[in-house]
Amino acid sequence: MGDATTGFALRGTFMHATRRGEIEIMEDAVVSVDAQGSIGAVHHPAEAGHATAVNDARERGALHEFHEGQYVLPGLVDLHIHAPQWPQLGKALHLSLHDWLLQYTFPLEAKFAERAFAERVYTSLVDTLLANGTTTAVYFATVHVESTMRLADICLAKGQRALVGKVAMDDAEQCPDGYRDASAAAGIEGTRDLIAYVRAMPGNRGALVRPVITPRFIPSCTDHLLEGLGVLAEETACHVQTHCSESDWEHAFVLDRLGRTDTRGIADFGLLRPNTILAHSNFITDEDMELIGQTRAGIAHCPLSNLYFSNAVFPLRSALDKGISIGLGTDISGGASPSILDNCRHAITASRALEDGVDPALDAARRGRPASRIDFRTALWLATAGGADALGLPVGRFEPGCDFDAMLVDTRRAGSNLMVWEDADCPEDILQKIIYNAGRDDIRRVWVRGRVVNEK
Amino acid sequence: MGDATTGFALRGTFMHATRRGEIEIMEDAVVSVDAQGSIGAVHHPAEAGHATAVNDARERGALHEFHEGQYVLPGLVDLHIHAPQWPQLGKALHLSLHDWLLQYTFPLEAKFAERAFAERVYTSLVDTLLANGTTTAVYFATVHVESTMRLADICLAKGQRALVGKVAMDDAEQCPDGYRDASAAAGIEGTRDLIAYVRAMPGNRGALVRPVITPRFIPSCTDHLLEGLGVLAEETACHVQTHCSESDWEHAFVLDRLGRTDTRGIADFGLLRPNTILAHSNFITDEDMELIGQTRAGIAHCPLSNLYFSNAVFPLRSALDKGISIGLGTDISGGASPSILDNCRHAITASRALEDGVDPALDAARRGRPASRIDFRTALWLATAGGADALGLPVGRFEPGCDFDAMLVDTRRAGSNLMVWEDADCPEDILQKIIYNAGRDDIRRVWVRGRVVNEK
Question: If we measure between CA atoms, which residue out of A415, A341, A330 comes closest to residue A376?
């Protein structure tokens, strides 16, 4: 099964969200995957090609049929992960951002100067994310070029689709002495080295692992560094990621320093490009949204982390209605869960908190922001096709031409909190239950580009 | 081990929250449990009795020692569960409360007229809650007396500490035709029968399973029913539970019908008593809080469910500062998780959303309600001792005289999202990580009154 030389076919129930707010559930469908891991065809049972596809694959010994209670969903896309923060997942979240950064986060990130430590942490992280169904991961690493190269190696070896960025941060006033780029030039050259390394990695066929230019955020970077990275982005056509208007503090800091919004500043430095990923973006203005939409950049919505460090809920529906590509991010370790399914749930609840408001002492009419809620359908789209679209990658849907990045959920596992009552739940109910209650162990198999990268 | 005739001792690291906001971590402590499942003594390693307790238990073959990476926490207290809604966990949450009730919830609850269906569902539910560490569960069942008796039977057989209530609801204008008490008298008599049955169950030593008088909420009950249940509460000295000021709709409905707040109405019907559990209570006034505090009633805070059906966040810190006993509730299936640990996380994030506010379009100064946040310490207290205090039950702490209701968490399980880095995490960090990331399978053993009720 999963023979990389001839391709294979999968027969079962496939569930995906091809457009925002719309789900499609294909029962007894056949998905044919070619030798490169790309979806060649999707056959519904009523189609003539269905039987042929089943028989051809069966004759070749390359048909995998799933049993009742098993469902294939697209692999999950995590648009925002701080890889070095993995050891402090679920720790120090009772502190202010200032204390969290200075007492915990920066000292921890500084330890990635040591290659062995980096390898230990990154191995654990990539294994965990794959086990949770994350087939595409967008990483902030640290300022250290060599350790960041190791993260790219590990992703490639384990088969995770990834964008890996060396963090660039050089402003001596905002960054601690022991943890920053020595200069703007050093930050730019280190980024250039990382790009060259990742693109030349042996075995990195079809750019499964890609580099991403990663200024931490405007407050920690000098203008020189930001300008240089903008030039590098144009020169290399590399993805870009950064934080944008995450909190009151960040939004105000950039307004004060540049006299422009964060989004506008990022654009003026040449860093707002198609498929640039702006993390958070909670305080972006309507004009910022227009600019992001026109540029075809994307937003990493990190609903759990935002409850700790952002002072507000991202106005998701407003941004979606402007046509912006949006996906989800765990924001490890600002968010304490490594699961994008968990973040689907938080995206739903945060949107409802924004809609209804939170303070019971206020009149209902003044408490919230109407028409803000999303449901499980949009949450699934954000977690899969939405994130893929933001990155411009051909994943997130079961359609010909897409790579086969997927996960198999088994709703009949004993000992699970995911409970399907087969006499009462229709397929759409089952999908909703998967989104609300599937845990790591309910995800029995994970594929990236047709390759099995996790199996339990 | 766990010999019920002579008692036993446990040696290891115990973590609990004896008071709101304060945790105690006892390393290498010995907890002696007597033949009735009650804690006889707790010995710290520096104490003279420590070695004696270890040796005595060891000689009797009744010493259980835990290894590194294992931690004993109090069992979790879930103050609010709609047992019959278990099959629809994670389903229909995209609907309005009205549609959710009429299309899904009431028809589902009506099916519990059938005893076999009730037994199937309740068995699954109690097993799942025990596996998630819930040692004390407060249940709304349905209007059906016999099915509710079966829930009590199942709790007792499986060893779960439980309060089990037959739902009383008789108002023909508010309740569907097929699903309500035939009359106020029928609701009262059914409740009386349930109380008598539960108190007389063979084997129900020390009232492990108790009855609870359960008017659904004022809107679904006539004055006659509420008055009769108030008399019954006084006559039987039985626990009481109901919903209180959950949403804008409920709060306004009761104000309109009675010309008083929900809390005041419940009190005037004789239903606000010591250890009455008021679910939600999001819109209670300062005067309501005073009344609840003076009465020594308690509140079931259901942070996840509130994000779906309550229109606001419960003002937890305000209520705690008034000295009210508060615990957590999953509110299955208004909340989609059966885990009280999950609800610890939601209690923390909801409190932060209330503090900071949610709408980024508002100035920070007007966005939230200052000083609303809680941290993991208070979350653990709510989930254990806080809930126990609300019920007036001797659990939730490792102290002499308390029953030994506990769970064993193993932080070294392969394949878990709970990651402890032993060279970097202090015991308090580990506790925080347990609260943020322990899942069902990380809870390896669960005890109620010294009896092992779940083991993986």
Answer: A341
